[in-house]
Amino acid sequence: MAPIPSSTTGADALCDTLLNNGIDVCFANPGTSEMHFVAALDRKPQMRCILGLFEGVVTGAADGYARMADRPAVTLLHLGPGLANGLANLHNARRAQTPVVNVVGEHATYHVKFDAPLTSDIEALAAPMSHWVRTIAASDAVSSDAADAIAAACSAPGHIATLILPADVSWGDTKGGRVAKAKIPPPASPSGDAVRAAAAALRNGKKTVILATGSALRARPLETASRIAQASGARLLAQQANGRMERGAGRVIVDRVPFNVDAAIDDLAGTEQIVLVGSRVPVAFFAYPGKPSTLLPPACRIVELASPDTDLVQALDWLADELAIPASTRPLLDATPPPDLPTGALTARSTIVTLGRMLPDHAIVCDESVSSGRDLFAWTRGAPPHDFLPITGGAIGLGLPLSIGAAVACPGRKVVCLQADGSGMYTLQALWTQARERLDIVTVILSNRSYAILHGELRKVGAGTAGRNARRMLDLDDPALGWVKLANGLGVEAAAVDTVEAFVDVLGMAMKRPGPFLIEAVLAPG
């Protein structure tokens, strides 16, 4: 452990502890209570500080960063209201099992009792979206508390840790000492009984689904899972929402549980048993009148190979050994010939097919295409190998911030953000951060000028079709959003296209040049 100088402040101790534990990126939107921490960060050029103009951009960027870096960034948020502004994307990060360390400023301890206008119960606000919350009591406790927060965030499978920093704790002097090192527990080891039970299930000849998530969806463990499925006759699936998947040509073909409840029930019909690899039992996103909440057949047996906090890679390796799979059993890799380029007016399908054809090798795709991208996996068969980062918790406004974090984590890789127009407006400010940081991101706005998913949901819940008042709440065409002007106003070059031919030209240019570029893909009606 490095020494803390005897004259250091609590803010300096916090910054030193973060750096000493490998956290060197701070996504920030600070205020008065955080100014001493801002000053400490200013004294530490090793820390990259990135400003988001809204706290949802800050928390979403931290999510994208950790998904790709496999280590947390730190967020800096201003008091309870600042944290509250960022909670929706912390919800998504929590569902993605992403490690995030939040630093939330608080009034000086002696000032809280006066109930100043920004006073709130920060711990209560943090609790629903955090796995670990602590308010630092004294300057000398900063380093140890920060190390505990890092350990909590980095414990498997990845957690949200929120550290509350009162202003006087931040500016107060410490007695020195050592910079604390986080004691990160290893993932739990697989259970031998669970491995044997899963192996027995895979040998019994029943119709079986292997449902995976988390680290099991990286390229190498997916190959192991695919070999297990090939040898046993099981079907390999991924959860509907996952933090990160490695997919594309030459990688394992794996589909997700469909979002649509009827499609999911049909897809899983006849399943007699399901083997969970860090995953949850599949359930409907919402309740629908007359439809079940659980998507599995009622008699389906549930076999848990590994819980989310388990070493999933080790569990799959052990299961493969237990099954004594022959070396000749090969994984089912994607060798699908890429589809021909479409022509004519842009639709959701033709936009995504074209993007799949033109994706650079090892790109990172951040997906918040919502209704327009429901069949994205089918439409991008044979696409070059890439990482796929979707929205996970259903709280819209993640796509643009997610792309920031991914680009910061992987500066040598092209990031493509596939963004629905309605949800893009939730965190539009992210484009400014893309421009300021000169991030290599191509944003494709799927512009259907409505909350199209909600038109569908209105029908699915049995509430009918949209009349005048409903359309006033669900459509975005009066006035139409001008994404080129919006992007330009935030410092990002942009172009609008409405045919495949124009999209190919602009996308080809954007893929070749560095820095941010936005394409508004204006989709044909219907």
TrEMBL record:
Residues 388-520 form the Thiamine pyrophosphate enzyme TPP-binding domain. Its EC number is 2.2.1.6. Gene3D superfamilies: 3.40.50.970. GO terms for biological process: small molecule metabolic process. InterPro entries: THDP-binding, Thiamin_PyroP_enz_TPP-bd_dom, TPP_enz, TPP_enzyme_TPP-bd. Residues 9-113 form the Thiamine pyrophosphate enzyme N-terminal TPP-binding domain. GO terms for molecular function: acetolactate synthase activity; flavin adenine dinucleotide binding; thiamine pyrophosphate binding. The keyword Aminoacyl-tRNA synthetase does not apply. Keywords: Thiamine pyrophosphate, Transferase. It is an enzyme of class 2 (transferase). Belongs to the TPP enzyme family. This is Acetolactate synthase large subunit IlvX. It comes from Pigmentiphaga humi. The lineage of its organism: Bacteria, Pseudomonadati, Pseudomonadota, Betaproteobacteria, Burkholderiales. The gene is ilvX_1.
